[in-house]
Design a protein that fits this description.
Layout lengths: L6 H6 L10 H14 L3 E7 L9 E7 L2 H17 L6 E3 L6 E5 L3 E7 H7 L1 H4 L4 E5 L7 E4 L1
Helix pairs in contact: 2-3
Length: about 140
Amino acid sequence: MPDPVTSAEAEQKGKAPRIVMGSKEKAILCARAALSFKALNLVVLDVSRLSSFADYFIICSGKSGRQVQGIADNLEDELRHRGLKPIGTEGKREGHWVLLDYGDVIIHVFYDPVRYFYDLESLWSDAARLELEQGSDLAATETD
């Protein structure tokens, strides 16, 4: 088995250093990045008590297929730059519902009408919502 690569070694090799963080911190980082790329109506759901495959869902939308693709592409690039690589992505070509799977955090970027059709917020209505506080800090509070 190869030796783990340190952050300094990763930078020398042109790779992003791997970030170790909890799922809540990862969800907040992903949500802030999505907002910086003009994602609309962003919601963070804590599904850890309801799901065996993820701890957090981030649901946001764009006003057109092109905007959805742009949010997803820029979000993936920004997170990769920060050392987070998705396990998988779906729906980028169509731009109606893009799913970015980061393991314990799953990001859904919807075209607005598609978001309201599938209504994931209602399907996961028992999940607590993570409310992001205004400002540059990464503080967040949970609400039921």
